[in-house]
Specification:
This protein is 23% helix and 13% strand. By secondary structure, it is α+β, with helices and mostly antiparallel strands. Strands 1-4 form a two-stranded parallel ribbon. A two-stranded antiparallel ribbon has the order 2-3. Strands 5-6 form a two-stranded antiparallel sheet. The protein starts with a strand and ends in a 19-residue tail after the last helix.
């Protein structure tokens, strides 16, 4: 297993796993599992199964991850696509800022248009960095809750509830 549970962070601290009605397992859940497995990346089990690393955690390695407590993930800077460059791919007068106008943000909630915007960003990246791949496949989320939480005894509490000490 390369990924663990994705813990929610609110009020500047780990609130654990969150469930229906905003009930979370609390900081003890986080501490116990970070102590056991290190500062792992967690993943949501959305259809894309894309993990969400926290770029400020101590578990980031320089180079290949070793799996030790403080070296569970890494990344390489592949380049930058600036919003100004991206907006320039769709000229227009709908949205103007500092003398530059664009229609890039028109129909921002239309699914077809969102896909087109994503493809423009990927194409722009490929044009700027032709020796790199246009896109990468999402890593598979191999998190197994039965292994991770063989016995799940963590109570669920609402971290937003008045009087909650996890704030």
């Amino acid at each position: 297993m390369h990924f663990g549970a994705r813990f929610a962070y609110d009020f500047g601290r780990c609130q654990g796993r969150c469930f229906a009605n905003n009930h979370c397992t609390g900081t003890g859940d986080c501490t116990t599992h970070y102590d056991q497995y290190g500062y792992i990346m967690g993943c949501n089990l959305f259809s894309s199964k894309y993990p969400f690393p926290d770029f400020d955690t101590a578990a980031r390695c320089n180079g290949e991850p070793t799996g030790t407590r403080h070296c569970t993930w890494s990344y390489e800077d592949a380049g930058v696509v600036d919003l100004t460059e991206l907006e320039a791919t769709v000229p227009g007068d709908d949205n103007c800022c500092e003398g530059a106008c664009t229609n890039f943000w028109v129909n921002e909630w239309d699914k077809g248009e969102l896909k087109a915007k994503t493809n423009r960003a990927l194409d722009l990246f490929l044009n700027k960095y032709p020796t790199l791949p246009r896109d990468l496949p999402p890593p598979a989320c191999d998190f197994n809750k039965e292994t991770w939480y063989a016995v799940d005894t963590w109570p669920r509490k609402d971290p937003w509830a008045k009087g909650n000490t996890n704030r």
